[in-house]
Design brief:
The protein has 564 residues and is an alpha/beta fold. It contains 14 helices and 26 strands. Strands 10, 11, 12, 13, 14, 15 and 26 form a seven-stranded mixed β-sheet that branches. A five-stranded parallel β-sheet has the order 2-1-3-4-5, sandwiched between helices. Strands 17-24-18-19-20 form a five-stranded parallel β-sheet, covered by helices on one side. β14 and β15 form a beta hairpin. It is globular, with a radius of gyration of 25 Å. The protein starts with a strand and ends in a 17-residue tail after the last helix.
Amino acid sequence: MSAAVLVAVDGDADVLRDVGRELRERYGRHYRVLTFTTPDDALASLKDLDDVALVLAGQWLSGMTGGELLSRIRRLHPHAKRGLLIAWGEWGDRETGEAIFEAIARGHIDHYVLRPLAAPDEVFHQAVSNLLLEWTEARRTSPYTIHVVGESWSGRAYELRKVLGRCAIPHAFSLADSHEGRELIAEVGAEGGLPIVVFPDGNVLRNPTDADIAVASGAPVDPERMEFDLVIVGAGPAGLSAAMYGASEGFGTLVVDEGGLGGQATSSSLIRNYLGFPRGVSGRRLAQQAYDQAWVFGAKFVFMQRAVDLERDGEVTLTLSNGTRVRSRAVLLATGAAYHRLGVPALEELSGAGVHYGGPASEAPGATDREVFVVGGGNSAGQAALYLARYARRVTLLIRADSLGAGMSHYLTQEIAATPRLDVRLATEIVGGGGDGWLDHLVLRDRRTGAEETVPADGLFVMIGALPHTDWLPPEIRRDDRGFVLTGADLDGCPWPSPRARLPLETSLPGVFAAGDARHNSVKRVASAVGEGSVAIQVLHRMFAAEGLQPRGRPQEPVDVLGR
């Protein structure tokens, strides 16, 4: 039996009995279930527990509210998921509703959970199971976790972790001389050297290539055919959205990405303002589900291949890094963007050894009880800082701007202000730092006064600005001075070599479109990228109609589904 604990707290004996019964009957084989009628008793017991997975609390308790109790539990067990128990329809009570809004905004709870009404109550269990899934994945204890063992945090082991992160695959890393590393090596052997990658099905790869990782994970690396209606370059939110809508509407669709799924979105540990996910969703899970959805509709994917050239001769031909040439009626550039580098040589040398470009989804457990810094003023940086605050002793968010709200959503600024162990330093930049094999200090400069300060640091996550992945495009595709692709009305006055009118999202080359972060003046939000991906398919319909084309992916003759 796992030592992980599920806790329920409620002053109503009948409610507590029902909640405890549902938890024990469904989860009692694998978790310990504890119930308490008072918050004081719960806190006294929780102080002595090591592994708490979930705490559920009613709002109206003796001596404090459920939100206050769960806030205190967050300090004791930052990894534990926290749910506020409410009765069905109680969200309509003004006082309860305001308590829920405030508790979520301040990060005191993960979400509310409806009390069970009857046995079995699958609505209750769906909420509990989702919270437990998030807990296991954050702790890297899910049975689907891929394990990497290496001799150091940097080098090839770090590159493999980046590949797995780009593929939106849950994974954990262990040093070879750690307890977990020695156990894995003893189990699978060290022949062939390190690093090793151990998959959930028992398959073991030794110092694999990126393509080996993709194939072993079930991801294709070569196209199944060479002619399509639409080739999408980039498997971020815009590309996945276009793939799903394109394939579902009968277009023969191929997605090409040199990394994996999700693009920059996978650096977001929790996206709370995405429509349809009231409890929030990680960028990795959103990417996984979008991939599954597009694949079921028939979209084809090729990973670990980079688009290196594009030319138009009637149709558009895309050349991949392995020399394969794919022809398509249209191409959608959804290549996204990458974070700027700091440009501090001593810190660049520590990439993967305490210094990370992008979000902390895979590195957060290693930040437990450490001093961690996040650089950036956008939503992704704010989400990363909040996520790290569950693990680190102290998180400091460094922002060049003079206010937190200059580039960040209001709900995030509220939660950051209310989060313990999370500090914000405005008008601050990093000018130095270093360490002997691992980051141990940073040099910070106050942009207002010029004063510099050296601070201890165990981890740094850099999420500043972005550069588009467009340097491989031919000169016929016009870009702005930063490399973002110009489309639609931004090209007014530019030559247009086609008898039909230029369409929205279309670039200066007919049949080539752009969506998402790589497009000039796009809104850098996941929902906006998803929206542009879906709009691109409607635009593709207009192009096909104007040019008298029929999708290759749709049967040319009617199919009698009854078999007559």
